[in-house]
From TrEMBL:
GO terms for cellular component: membrane. The lineage of its organism: Eukaryota, Metazoa, Chordata, Tunicata, Ascidiacea. It comes from Ciona intestinalis (Transparent sea squirt). Keywords: Signal. This is Putative defense protein 3. Pfam families: Reeler. The gene is LOC100184320. InterPro entries: Ferric-chelate_Red/DefProt (IPR051237), Reeler_dom (IPR002861), Reeler_sf (IPR042307). Residues 14-185 form the Reelin domain. Residues 1-19 form the signal peptide.
Amino acid sequence: MVAMLYWFLWIYLATLTSAYPGGAPDGSCGHMTPAHGSPASNLDQSPFYLNVSATSYLPGEKIIVTVLSSGANFKGMFLQARGEDSPNNAIGWWEKPNGTSFKQMECAGNKNSALTHSDGMSKAAPSRFVWIAPCNSTTDYRFYATIVQEYATFYVKIPSDTVVRGNGEKVCKPPGSGGTGVSLPPLSMTLFVAIVHAVALLR
Ligand SMILES: *[C@@H]1O[C@H](CO)[C@@H](O)[C@H](O)[C@H]1NC(C)=O
Ligand SMILES: *[C@@H]1O[C@H](CO)[C@@H](O)[C@H](O)[C@H]1NC(C)=O
Ligand SMILES: *[C@@H]1O[C@H](CO)[C@@H](O)[C@H](O)[C@H]1NC(C)=O
């Protein structure tokens, strides 16, 4: 039993020291820059870029954002929408991504306002994600992705084209206000965290 606990602790420490295989840390919501000790790669040379499904939106409408690549795979991603009136905060909601490689994240106090990777495995583009524009929104938006290709090769805040506020109104209800906006961590992760805490207490 003790051996098992140490095994979990070892994994935990290995996780801490090998960048962020579990996703971008909360503290990087604003600057979107991984603390990898090397400078960000030049955006002009990025093999990754973003495509948006529309040039305008109404409140509550969905926009499909696709991470495209000229061939390269990537390991990490941090994706947010930023309004022209609040360029430092993640805005709107992301739907739960398909598959298990990516997950929702809370930034700027807004639940599910960012997406990040959930493991350190190689991921292929195109990867498609669905964003829902906030209610009562009047500003224009751009999407920004930080993509980690390899540990020392990452591109910070790759911008999409601008998505402007269309003319008109739309009835809009924030996701989660009517039930299923909240995603719980998987049981395995909950157990894992509980065990890590137990080990910390035993020491
Ligand atoms: C980019 O998005 C537009 C609008 O949805 C779509 O027509 C186009 O095929 C997309 N391009 C790529 C390369 O996915
Ligand atoms: C997620 O998967 C479903 C079922 O295959 C598909 O219809 C949907 O378009 C996918 N969503 C995205 C964002 O690709
Ligand atoms: C949108 O604005 C209306 C009227 O000001 C307000 O009642 C409603 O709560 C707002 N909705 C959101 C999601 O902020």
